[in-house]
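Exam review. A common question shows you a sequence with its structure tokens and asks you to describe the fold in words. Practice with the pair below. Do the first one on your own.
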Amino acid sequence: MKFKIDWYLVLIILMAVAASVIPARGETAFWLGWASKVLIGIVFFLHGARLSREAVLRGATHWRLHLLILGATFVLFPALCVGIAHLPAWITPPELASGIVLLGCLPSTIQSSIAFVGVARGNVPAAVASASASNMIGVFLTPVLASVLMHAKGAVSAGSFWAIVLQLLAPFVAGQLLRPWIGGFVARHSKTLGKLDRGTILLIVYVAFSGAVVEGVWDRLGALDLVRLLVLCLALLGVVLLVTMLAARALGFDKADEIAIVFCGSKKSLASGAPIAAALLSPAVAGVAMIPLMIFHQIQLMACAAIAQRYAQRPDTDTASG
């Protein structure tokens, strides 16, 4: 396999670098912060208009598969990440602990999960239903999980709940309610609106990292901390991939279903994670909290691309179920 550069991730990293060199301060930071809040609301409105309830309902009959994937996403991942966050400081950098917990609470990806399942010749309809359900449920469940698990570490204030309601939940529900009228428009202009999604995340990263830099994040975090985080993310992904694969086999799922379980159950969404971090946390905390997500995002893409190719090379003796 040829190594493929994720140019969007490169842009995200460049925004973090730009914020480290020229952070937004004062009135500029204030107005950029408000702009990012408005754009977050628009992005989640479009998420609501884009996600198909029909796809989720069509896959509801394959409930054992979906429960296993949701269990990996919202039970196994948070438990592992909380455990990692409570490891000694010489293993888990304390500054990154909250970001690791946030990572564990996020929903699965949609596009990359479905794409990898397709490449691996897995159960694509099940992947569509499960990834859609994960994101739909995640809009409600992720802020609750993050608030409960991160509040214990002092990263989340009680007022964050209303920020989540106003910035994420209300626009998402509005998008879902208006989907019958605007869903076609959103689908036809998906490429253009996708650029808005991606541009919003770039702005969120810049604003969040600016706040973190102004608060002296790079005085508290060094290269060794990032290396330790990389190792922790590799270990986390490896454990989840192994557990989902073994659980699928132990419960008697066929190979096509196993592929859907492995890929949908091992992903974490950068598209959801950045806005949730910005809505839930102060800019200084959000900037640091995004670091584990950015590293895990790239690792999961590289690892799952290789695994998908290995699955695809198996003899064609099984068929997708669902």
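Now try the second one, then compare your answer with the model answer below.
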Amino acid sequence: MTASVFLAGPASWNTIVVLDRLPEPVPHMQFAEGSWETVGGTSAGKALTLTALGRSTLLHALSASDEPGMKIRDALALAGVDVLWGESAVTERHLNLMTRAGARVSLYLSSPEATEGQDDAALIAAMTRADALVLDLAPEPLRLLPHAQATGRPIWVDVHDYDGTADFHRPFLDAADAVFCNADRLPDPVDFLHSRIASGAALAVCTLGADGAVAVDSDHVEHRVAAAPVEVVDTNGAGDAFFAGVLDARLTGADLDTALRAGARAASSVLGTRHLHPVLDPVLDPAAG
């Protein structure tokens, strides 16, 4: 199979707990407004949206052959996502404490280490054939970065709530042709975007939650898009869907403003479900249908 987009990064099994407020850092009791289990992981979210958009996609992710790992594998297979699975000693699992407004604390319960490269021949071949490579923040994609750079294919990265200084993000930023982030921890998001263009990226984008997103192109021109109005059920995966919508549109030749609007539409499509994408609704909540 030749994939237009190759992704490497996390696919996880998540427990979501919705609270009226995030917990204070003191001993106390708090009642949840709701809770459920679902597929998580930034790369799984991007792959789901790209697949739903009709974009040929191959995801490389790691899991153990345990119960959470098989739940992830089965759900993504039923949703039509093509995955080249790597074996890991553990399956990635998160506990996400959420508010209805979208505030979140993510607790990583387990996280896979990088592999020893046993599948590299297949991975390098897939990257070489792809139109774009997406490498998300995790040990395995970090290990694959030199191989990705050697292909000469454009590399897209998502550094999420980067604070502008964390060392782990630096290799991803240095390799990136397109950089995405959110504004949660950056002192000046727009200044950061311009700094990435000055460092050699061709595109830098920062999502702003309900305020939409801002992007800076290769000429340092700023572009903005409003968030699409939608009734929010759960905010998990919205940033990944926005990323995927922009990437898909750019690969079709859309200009940046058109691509940003496509990203906003893609993000709105996942805000109305409690899963990473509506295609998971009949897979994980069959009784609801």
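Model answer, second protein: Residues 70 and 167 are 33 Å apart (CA to CA). The mean pLDDT is 95. Full marks require stating both points clearly.
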